[in-house]
Amino acid sequence: MKDAAKVHWWALLLPMLAVLIWSLNITVTRYVADYISPVSISFYRWLVAFLVLTPFILPQVWKQRMLVRRHLGQLAVLSAFGMVLYQGLAYSAAHYTTATNMGIINAFIPVFTIFVSMFILKDIPNKFAVIGSLISFFGLMYVMSQGHLANLLQSGGHWGDAIMVVAVFFYAFYGVFLKKWQLQIPLLISLYVQIGFALIYHLPFIVWLGLDPINLQNGPSVFYAGIFPSLIAPLLWMVAVQQIGPNRTSIFMNLMPVFTAIIASL
Fold it and tell me: Are 194 and 79 in contact (CB under 8 A)?
């Protein structure tokens, strides 16, 4: 029992650290918005992650190529929602809103997931989930209106917050599709293939908008985004899910606004 308790408490630190990494990334995203375009940092982020993973994962992808081929279409969809639409819009939102607001809106991913699940999975939530979601929704409206709900009706709210809400909405689809498909494919292989698709999806935007060079101002942020929130945090999160379960793990997402506000104030 003592060993189990030790593992349990040790595992609780994993999702907390993952959320801390993601929270810091939100602040980094807001900071770097003045030095690099959304398309550029999004592309560089996944390029760094892809290059880091390639020596370790590419041989496994080749060995399991038949399995990967069967799920190729689903992995392409997951990449579009989770790595391109969500992350690209988040980088765009950073030009117009604060890191604190981005962190708060990110914490609404579970709420958006409930509503998306109703339509895609036909998963009807219980009354407590509905009540909690409604309270969260009005809380989100309060944040977007900057404390004055009447302003939201008159001006439509904060432009950056609105973009971030759309981004979170897309990420909810990512989570629901993951649950619906339950892909029987190793997690790192799945992550690697999705990153590969993300790079391909970025190419038309790069041709259209161009690519900013990496320099001393944006370079550290690019490499942080490519390694910590793209690779290390997801791995910590996946281990936490295995150790303490998805429900307990998801609770730690509520720490994101707290961590983001603290980091942004430093």
Answer: yes
Sign of the C-alpha dihedral computed for residues 44, 46, 50 and 53 taken in this order:
positive
CA distance linking residue 67 with residue 96, whole number of Å: 42
Contact 104, 257 (CB under 8 A): yes
**φ, ψ (nearest 5 deg) of residue 98:** -95, 160
Nearest CA among 121, 120, 72, 91 for reference residue 26 = 91
What are 260's two structure tokens? 């983001």
Tally helices (H) and strands (E) across the chain: 15, 0
| Residues 6+ away with beta carbon under 8 Å from 119 | none
Is the pLDDT at 144 greater than 60? The verdict is no
- DSSP-derived secondary structure letter, 50: H
Q: What is the mean pLDDT of the chain?
A: 81
Q: Is 147 helix (H, G, I), strand (E, B) or coil?
A: coil
Residue 44 φ/ψ, nearest 5 degrees: -60, -40
Contacts of 265 (CB under 8 A, 6+ apart): none
Per-residue tokens: 96: 């117009």
pLDDT at position 233 over 70: yes
Whole-number Cα distances in Å, 41 to 6, 36, 118: 40, 6, 34
Query: How much is the pTM?
Result: 0.81
**Helix or strand (DSSP H, E) at 258:** helix 256-265
